[in-house]
Hints:
The structure holds two protein chains of two kinds. By secondary structure, chain A is of the alpha/beta class. Chain A is built from 16 helices and eight strands. Chain B folds into two domains: 3-78 and 241-252, ATPase, nucleotide binding domain (Nucleotidyltransferase, domain 5, 2-Layer Sandwich), CATH 3.30.420.40; 92-234, Nucleotidyltransferase, domain 5, CATH 3.30.420. In chain B, helix 2 packs across helix 8 and helix 3 (129-138) runs antiparallel to helix 6 (180-199). The longest helix of chain B has 20 residues, at 180-199. Chain B starts with a strand and ends with a helix. Classes of the chains: A alpha/beta, B alpha/beta. The A-B interface holds A 352-353, 357-358, 363-364, 366-367, 370-371, 373-374, 377-378, 381-382, 385 and B 64, 76-80, 103, 112, 114-118, 120, 122-123.
Amino acid sequence: MTKARTFSEISTLRERNALAVKEAKEKGRRVVGTYCLYSPAEMVVAAGAIPVMLCGTSQNPVPAAEKVLPRNLCPLIKSSYGFAVTDTCPYFHFADLLIAETTCDGKKKMYELLGEMKPLHLMQLPQVQDDAALSYWTGEMVRLKRRMEEDFSVEITDDRLREAISLVNDERRSLKEFQDVCKYNPSPISGMDMLTVLHNRGFTVDKREAIELVDRLTAELREMAEFGVSPFTPSTPRILLSGVPVGIGSDKVVRLIEECGGSVVCFESCGAYKKVEPVEETGDPLAALADRYLRIPCSCMSPNQGRLSLVEQLVREFRADGVVDLTWQGCHTYNIESFSLKKHVQGTAEVPFLQIETDYSESDTEQLKVRIEAFLEMINRAKRTG
Amino acid sequence: MISVGIDIGSTATKAVVFDGRIIGKAMEITGWDPKEAGYRAFRGALDIAGITEDRVGPIVGTGYGRISLPILTGKVTEISCHARGAHHLHPGTRTVIDIGGQDCKVISLSDDGSVSDFIMNDKCAAGTGRFLQVMAGILDATLDELGALAAGGEPVPLSSMCTVFAESEVIGLLARGTGKENIAAGIIDTIARRIQGLAGRVPFLETVTFTGGTAQNPHICRIIAERLGTRLHVPLEPQFVGALGAALIGWED
């Protein structure tokens, strides 16, 4: 399979950057670890610190986590905790401060335990998107700003915040353009490779470097698409993957969809399309941050109409033939919301919908394969007779 | 043209020879060697049809063992096959319930017979043929006997659908002297509730066709039909519907 030249450079970013973080720390830079899309990276950048994504997408540390956490908890929470408690995530190891949010019950209680290992700042996230919630959430932004100013003995001025907003907006622009290459049919990049890029770029120390790399990759992919170079054919079923966060290590369903003959053309998840909308660059920067972050359509919000509209819009824009809604075992909010999403997708976009509830382990691979293959057979038949 | 469908399930392997109608079929226990079971069923069905291997065109495999058979010209999931087979036997079919050895599924069909939605059990034996086998084993009964026992019983509520936990629950009931008939009825009611739960998650339209080996048991059929409040169409030999669907898909392509 032909791959874009820049891809291999990005696929080793995670390993190389663990060293870069270590060196930066030795030179006195502060490192701030985050788990969730609700953590405002802009605030970290404005404080002169390095924001890094913390590990939480591998099955490896789950048994260690299960010594403390219940077995039937979401694997993302178990993995995150397991990495921390076994000290196997270099980014957690080097972090001076963790930013966490009260998104779901499982995470909230797990963060209490993490707080015993590292300094942790918990943002109280409202779970409704109205004016009262926005003013409360703006207060939380102020509280985070003060915490970072105190911990790192810096002053986060409005100007520095505006600069940070503009940098992170550029990162969003770059990530959106990268993901939008999959609007070509066939897409010039597999879903697995796209996920590798989206996952690895989160571990970069220098955001400008990551933006430059991703932009270069996007340009190469566009050229490949113009020449019709692709791992797929124009008749390969195009799948939109919706739902919970996925990354390398928790990529089982992405891999199975593509092994069974599909092409994952869009990820609606947190590290992907939920992330691309920019922050308003005019006006008060803290208010602008609060406004943008509160609008994230995570299933912990109630109601969460924004997600239904986003999926509907992405099905249209990416010309998806089907929606697979990935929900982690024990993730009540995404699991329950799947019912509403299915109704919405079948009612508006009129494409087939498959919910998959699973964890990070390989134990259900064969059963998932039957389901995914049958789903693709359904789509193929509809395309033939279409 | 002659096509063959081979359905290698976790418990039984079925083959159907089709030339416009079913001209041969055979069933084997899958056992530990799904490949050998596949060959045996294939040859057995050809023998009954009285034709030689060289006259066979497409050979389509389905079921969990389908990956293990090199003679296959195509592979299709059991979901598409059961839908295709059921639609052929009862063209009005809009819903298929299939209870196999290690999974159970409810499949919705469009009016042209194509799959429009489906739901399967998760990684768990609740509601499967395996569940029934284990439960029948505790009562020292065969599957047929389990059905017959259930016919004369009032279902005792079993709270657990998990095969392992239900096993201890049943042992506890036996120890307390609960009648075998009532326990048997309770066991089958558990399956019916599980199917009812799945059926609520997809469009459930009539006609409903019940396929898979479990459908051979009239008492199980009756209890499920009562739970769902619908009539169930049970093909003459429901265990062959998947293999028939595979043969039909080969025939059409």
